[in-house]
Specification:
By secondary structure, this protein is mainly α. Helix content is 53%, strand content 0%. It is flat and about 90 Å long.
Length: 146
C-alpha cells in the first residue's frame, strides 16, 4: 500500500534566532559581565543577593535592565560641587595667615558692593514702598442674627 508519503531525510525544525537590543544571547551575557564589573562591589553583591542571574533569556534581560538603572543613578559617594568648594576653601584657609584671610574678605566685600551698585544702576527700583504702621486694624465682630 502506498499512501503517497515519500521517505526522505527529516529536516530539523529551524527555530527563530532570538535577540535582545540587536544582541545575541552570548553578547548580552558578555555585556552584563563587563558592565557589572564597573559597578561598586556593594552593588554587585546586592544584584547577586537579589536573585539577578546571567543565565537564561529572561534573567539576562532583567539583569541588563537593572545594570542600566544602576549605572544611570548618580553615585552618592561622590561629593557635590558645594562640598568640593567648601573643602577647597578649608584647604586654602589652612595655608593662609589671618591677615591674608582678612584682606581677602575685605576685597570680596568691596567687589560684592560694586556689583550690587552696578545692578542697582542698571535695574533701578523706582517704585516707592510705604508701610503705615499708624493705623491699626479694627477688630471685626460678627453679630449673631436670630
Amino acid at each position: 500500500m502506498d499512501f503517497g508519503l515519500e521517505a526522505g531525510p527529516m529536516k530539523p525544525k529551524q527555530s527563530k534566532k532570538r535577540s535582545f537590543s540587536g544582541m545575541s544571547y552570548r553578547d548580552v551575557q558578555r555585556s552584563n559581565s563587563n558592565r557589572k564589573s564597573k559597578l561598586p562591589k556593594q552593588q554587585q553583591k546586592w544584584l547577586k543577593e537579589s536573585g539577578y542571574r546571567n543565565v537564561g533569556w529572561d534573567n539576562i534581560i532583567q539583569l541588563y535592565q537593572k545594570i542600566n538603572e544602576l549605572l544611570a543613578e548618580p553615585d552618592s559617594d561622590e561629593p557635590t560641587l558645594e562640598e568640593l568648594f567648601l573643602k577647597a576653601d578649608q584647604i586654602g584657609n589652612k595655608y593662609q595667615t589671618p591677615e591674608e584671610i582678612e584682606a581677602f574678605q575685605q576685597q570680596l566685600s568691596t567687589e560684592v558692593e560694586a556689583i550690587a551698585d552696578t545692578i542697582d544702576r542698571q535695574f533701578p527700583d523706582t517704585e516707592i514702598e510705604s508701610i503705615d504702621y499708624g493705623k491699626q486694624a479694627k477688630p471685626t465682630t460678627r453679630r449673631k442674627r436670630s
